[in-house]
Amino acid sequence: FTPTTTVAEILDDLTAELGLLKAKRIHTYALYEDCQEYGLKMIDSSSVLASVLAKWESFGRRGIPTGTWAVCMRIQCYAETTEDSPLEKENDLTFYQTHDSFLRGWIPFNELQSLKQAAIYLHYRFGDRPQQFSYEATPALPNGLFSLIPQRVVLGKYGESGLRDAIKAVTQGGMSWSSDELLNSAESLGVASPNSDLASAQSKGLRMTMKKLRGSVANKKETNRDSMGSAHGSDMNSASSGLNAGVGEERKARSGLMRTLKKMTLRKDVHRGQPIKELLFNIDQQWMALSGLSKSESAEIYMAAATRSPAYGCAMFEIEYYSKDTRETMGVTYDQLNMNRNRWLAVSRKGLEIRVRNTAATEISIPYEDIVSTELPERNAFECATTEEVLVFLTHGDEHYEINKLFTAYLSSD
């Protein structure tokens, strides 16, 4: 690359280098800058490398640690969100981006499912739980525990003090122990250890259930391939969201798996005064229960839970919004508007959706066929005229440009 190389040229080279020219699930890619202070922002494809590097240098001059800023290639628009891909790199990229969306709160899970997703991610990333493992910040886990679960999960369970303790433990140490140390600590706290006979039996039961489910899938493929839905695999609650639930044997397997996982969940009345250890023991137990599964099986379980969320495959933007018709009728200023705050605008191949932040609640759904026109009427504003009303979305920075680009890209993909 040279200083005059454009972002579009960089993306073309990366796509070819990664063998993603025939990607099935991906419509377009984009380069993004990711900064702890400003969040995730798309870099315009016409930008040149020199301008990107200049941005990095300007951060250093302004006292912002350059290590907190990075450029990454991400999926911009999904062409397909249900079918699996034969390309390993595409599956890998989709998996890591899905986990990143989970950490940003875009794909909301409850506390229990969040810990399960964390354990599955660890198994996908590192395989079976090693004898010694650290949840502190390392190159493999740049944000330590918070490379596995969102901070809001810790905040919701333990409050501000628990979150502060977790952040302190991640940055200052004390989150590393061996399997034997975990065994001793678990026994002293009255918790069934992952190394105990009970946990071993649970782990064995999980593997046997996975075999039954895979066998059921194989039989169905032989008899009726078209009856299959999503091929992403099974989550920890339902074992396989893509399998037809009409087979009795499969129902028993799913029910058995769910009972096993419930038994593995730590009791909430133990570990008082040790909230972070409670959380980590829970993750560790579920990680050990995945022992023996392959990387692809871990991905199937993780992605099945993620794809069940209506937020999967969406790009999210923090917004405030109001109805233009209301403003013009009332003749009020922006400051007088009773705007809807604490919202996300989700842009996907299905259309636009307004969501309540950090929840699965959808306030308004706007299919593309109901959109009459869009405009960028003023700074930080994206205007969308539907068959019923005109909505104005106020964004942070220049994200209204990115929303417009995504909107155009999805329309052109149909």
Describe what you observe in this structure.
Helices cover 44% and strands 18% of the residues. The chain has 414 residues and is of the alpha+beta class. It has 3 domains: 7-83, Ubiquitin-like (UB roll), CATH 3.10.20.90; 111-307, no CATH class; 315-413, Pleckstrin-homology domain (PH domain)/Phosphotyrosine-binding domain (PTB) (PH-domain like, Roll). The chain has a 7-stranded antiparallel β-sheet with strand order 9-8-7-6-12-11-10. Strand 7 (340-348) and strand 8 form a beta hairpin. The protein is globular, with a radius of gyration of 23 Å. It comes from Sphaeroforma arctica JP610. This is FERM domain-containing protein. Residues 1-414 form the FERM domain. Residues 215-252 are annotated as: Disordered. InterPro entries: Actin_motor_Myosin, FERM_central, FERM_domain, PH-like_dom_sf.
In short:
With 414 residues, the chain is an alpha+beta fold. 44% of the residues lie in helices and 18% in strands. It has three domains: 7-83, Roll (Ubiquitin-like (UB roll)); 111-307, no CATH class; 315-413, Roll (PH-domain like), CATH 2.30.29.
Task: Provide the fold topology.
Elements: H1 7-17, E1 26-35, E2 39-42, H2 49-61, E3 69-78, H3 88-103, H4 111-126, E4 132-134, H5 151-172, E5 176-178, H6 179-188, H7 197-223, H8 248-264, H9 275-289, H10 295-307, E6 315-323, H11 324-330, E7 340-348, E8 351-356, E9 362-367, E10 371-375, E11 381-386, E12 390-394, H12 399-413
Antiparallel strand pairs: 1-2, 1-3, 4-5, 6-7, 6-12, 7-8, 8-9, 10-11, 11-12
Helix pairs in contact: 4-9, 4-10, 7-8
